Amino acid sequence: VRTGTPSGEACPWGALVGAAGVAALMAFGLLAASSCRLRLDWRLLLAVSVFAVLTSSVLSHRLLAPNGLGVYAGKARLFLEAGGIPAGFWSDPAYAPYQPSYPPGLTALAWLAFALGGGWSDVFVQLLSPAAMAVLFCLLTKDTRSWLQTVAALAVVLCPVAQTMTAGLYAEPFAAACLAAGLRRAEVRDGTSAWLLVGCAGLFRHEGLLVAGLTAIFLSGRARRWRATAAAVMPGLVWELAMHAVGAGPYDFDWTGGPSYARMAEAGLMALALAGTSACRIGCVVIWPVLAAADSFRNGGRVANGLPILSAALAVLTGVVLLSCSVSGSYSTIVFANIPRFAWLAFIPALVRCGVHPKGAT
User: How far is CA 261 from CA 199, 264, 315, 332, in A?
Assistant: First the structure.
């Protein structure tokens, strides 16, 4: 793992300034785009505490390969060192470990952090992940006065799966922040810009395209549903089409052979286990919106309050089907690693729209 500047001279303070600057720019940009105003109150202090706790964890080690190091920050360092994208990067098997078809959002942020820092340190770029989680916490607790909602939001951003994603520089926290920011913006002005922001989740994870599209179908206003859906899928779809055009396909997936029913059953059982006995691993993201919707129904709420949960469940089910097309020899390991993260991401819109507390659901 290379550290220091291109000339070999260590430059830790430059790397720290670059990474911290990009993290702050991302945080304030998402909060401003979401129409979420920051006030010096207990919610902001808790968000700073979330950032501090997660930062103390991730800065205790270098990037954990092959996740953030090889797939996102690794690509950023490769592009910076090569002065651009190397010839044959998209389709040459030699570059397969870099996962060229992965969406570019986190790679772009890491590249900017490296470029602004004037160095190659792989330690401070990890500040991006705690910043994304702190933003997500702010968006989940926007304007709340409920201590239960706050505790639930803390569980979502500090649960074991969230800490694993933060420590490994995974892209799900960034996709989740885009989903939450777009939905918060849609509460204020349900326009195309809000759903484009939701769709930016597809620029961080392949699955973000699926979740963004289903979120728009189920949660946008009836009068603008298809326009909102088109906006939500556009960012991710443009990237997927571009990757298809240059010959960079999803790694270890065979779409022509169809899904494997045995593998679908294995992934489905894992998803069911997460929804029940392993809910604490993913911060109870399934339980909280269900409780909120149930409470709303009990108090005369509309059937529409169950749509966020239906959207999330359908996203997980579709993800299970897509995952069954994997031809990897370590499929069980992939399922164990991916299903918890995908379930966590898929239920973020339900947490925003239903509320993450059983009383006073919105």
Answer: 30, 5, 18, 14
Confidence (pTM): 0.91
Q: What is the dihedral of CA 312, 315, 317, 323, to 10 degrees?
A: -140
Distance CA 120, CA 111 (A): 10
> How many angstroms separate the CA atoms of 130 and 168, rounded?
11
User: Which residues have CB under 8 Å from 111's CB, separation 6+?
Assistant: 76, 79, 80
Short-list 339, 353, 349, 346, CA closest to 161: 339
Tokens 């579709």 map to which residue? 318
For the cut 70, the answer to whether the pLDDT of residue 33 exceeds it is yes
Contact by Cβ (8 Å): 72, 129:
no
Which residues are CB-contacts of 322 (< 8 A; sequence separation ≥ 6)?
210, 259
pLDDT of residue 10: 46
Tokens of 309: 């949960």
The alpha carbon of 37 is separated from its chain's Cα centroid by a whole number of angstroms, namely: 22
